[in-house]
Amino acid sequence: MSEVYTNVYRDSTVWQARPVDPGLEAEFLRRLMLRFGVDDARAKAQLAAANTDSKAKLVAAADGAGSIELTEPFDRAWRRVGLVLDRVGFTVEDRDRSKGFYFVRYVDPEADAVGKSNESFLAKLMFWRDPPDPKAGQYRVFIKDRSDSSEVQVLNKEGGPDTSDTARKILSLLQQQLK
Fold it and tell me: Within 13 Å, how many C-alpha atoms sit on residue 5's CB side?
């Protein structure tokens, strides 16, 4: 988390989630290992062995629907994708581990901002009306087990491959968090 000022006068702050920092996370893990009695040299060696280049690779498909290739078995991939969905702020409506599905809702922040900027002044004054519901798209995040790795895909509501820009944004967001 990071503390951010809410106004120009710098008199109030809020805590916001900050981007993933693998170096900081490794340092906290090393200190925790030291606290539990592991030697400093062994802790550094274990962290160096666990730190690979990238565990998540974005793969583009010919039809426009991409996927993420994770170098982890299904169990770890399922858990990590679930944590990322919670961390990033997706609304997870349901999950089916046996089939590998997370049923999520996603509101595109850019589309939501465009809708708000097009409102007229008089429309903003009509306080008795309910605010417009942002168009939250329903998606399925599908995790497929492979022999030594896993594949993550974003599917549409019906379960077919999704080739929209929003699906590509979701994939890139997941890939950035899964590195």
Answer: 5
**Rounded Cα distance, 85 and 87, in Å:** 6
Closest CA to 17 of 84, 102, 92, 94: 84
Alpha carbons 172 and 128: distance in angstroms, whole number: 39
Give me the helix-helix angle, 22-35 and 40-50, nearest 10°.
Answer: 140
| Residue with the two structure tokens 């702050």 | 13
Q: Are strands 13-16 and 2-5 parallel, antiparallel or unpaired?
A: antiparallel
**How many angstroms separate the CA atoms of 69 and 67, rounded?**
7
pTM of this prediction? Answer: 0.61
The maximal CA–CA distance of the chain, rounded, in angstroms, is 67
Distances (CA, A) of 97 to 3, 55, 75, 79: 36, 21, 9, 10
Using DSSP's 3-state secondary structure scheme, residue 165 falls into helix
Q: Which residues of 56-77 are buried (b: 16+ CB within 10 A; e: fewer)?
A: bebeeeeeebbbbebebebeeb
Query: How far, in Å, CA of 104 to CA of 107, rounded?
Result: 10
**How far is Cα 124 from Cα 18, in angstroms, rounded to an integer?**
32
pLDDT digits (tens, 9 = 90+) for 99-152: 999 999 987 766 554 455 556 666 666 666 655 555 668 899 999 998 888 999
